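Why does residue order matter? Because the sequence determines the fold. Keep that principle in mind as you read this record.
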Amino acid sequence: MSEIKKIGKSRVANTDAGAFVMGNNPFAHFDEYAGLSRTVDWEADPALIGGVKLVPHGLNNDLPVIIRDIMDKNNLAPGILEREMGLLYGDGPQLYQVKYEEGKVSREYVEDAQVQAWLDSWDYKRYIDMAMVEYKYMKGVYVKRVRNRAPRIGGPGMIKYLEVIPGTDARLEWPEKGPKRLESVKRIWVGDFQNHCLHTGMTGYPVHDPWNPFKHGISIAYHNKYSFGRNFYSVPSYYGSLNWIMRSSDIPEVLKYLSENGITSAYHIHSPAGYWEAKEEKIEKMHPGETEAQRSKRVEELKDKTFQKMARVLTGKRNAGKFIETVDFYDEDGNKNEWKVEAIDQKIKDFVESQVKIGEKADSATTSGMGLHPSLSNIIVNGQLSSGSQMLYALKLYMASDTTLPEEVVFEPINQAIAANFKGKKLRMGFYHHSVMKEEDVAPNERLVNNAENPS
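Structure:
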């Protein structure tokens, strides 16, 4: 007789031979998904939802949700992305003008009361925060533009505010005409796609036209950086590292189960046959009218209860130091019958060391896939933290090469709105970063070590 029960995300089969855990992998869905995604082009055919043909985002139109769930369970990747966003943000958003002097391009940060008043009229910092998160996680961001009502009566148009639509809630409409690529998309749909829009329905918006910014009262645009071989959506740079990210998340869970229950059989229990024969005789005397099948069932129930009690004592981190009382007795021939509990060498040390090495490799691969130098991620390499000079040069390299493209995507909607609302003002917005110097190049009274010892 066998019985299968679902416990959390695992299935436990209780059979005559024992209990077996099946599918104890929270990422089993993505393991299958990742294998198929390498051979199946999810952008080849539309997904039909609510009677509307959409460009599926992922094999099952759920890639943003899968990315979110994988990141939620990882202890390293979200922190790396947070560090990247902190480095990108720098000293915050500022208005600037582009200057050309002696063949060099520079920024001149300026104040403009009119533009700043427009920015302060809506929560532009919230927009920037959400746009950074969306871009870093998914390499693309949906931005809604809401125009004023003046053009309805012939007045001047103006973009009132911008709003980020989460990637889990927006999809591109399948283009019926033109080439199958992003530029051919005419509408973007918003709804609860995680739950197939069953309770919320969908709302379609025209794609924003930067050459005619006041054409629509509300419009949405998908801002991204092109991913090679992808016609519509971008995929994050760490997409190929997702298997390593999942392995990194698995290690703590494996060690947790090892600590609490053990991965394999830890004990071999010998029970004397004479013990159970005596129990069966006692049951027969207590229930003289029962059949042999009924008595056997009672014996099996007694065995289950006995071994369950022993399992509670033998397993679990809270049971260290407990002991088991057993009964020894002799048969008619004087032979000793006894219970025995023998520990099985599971080579725990070797197993734990191998898991730790896998975890270190997974952490390294995760960091590489994220594109951030280990010295900037607080990752220990070969048992050592990076030196100050390594961190400084890694920071300068990151600022010189990895901030421009994300900044362009995050601020493209704001800069388009500034250009449309304030014609003639050659203003843009971007992140301000001050130059980081070596400690020896800093005046002694301004060095960090002195400021830490003598705080003002």
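Residues 10 and 25 are 7 Å apart (CA to CA).
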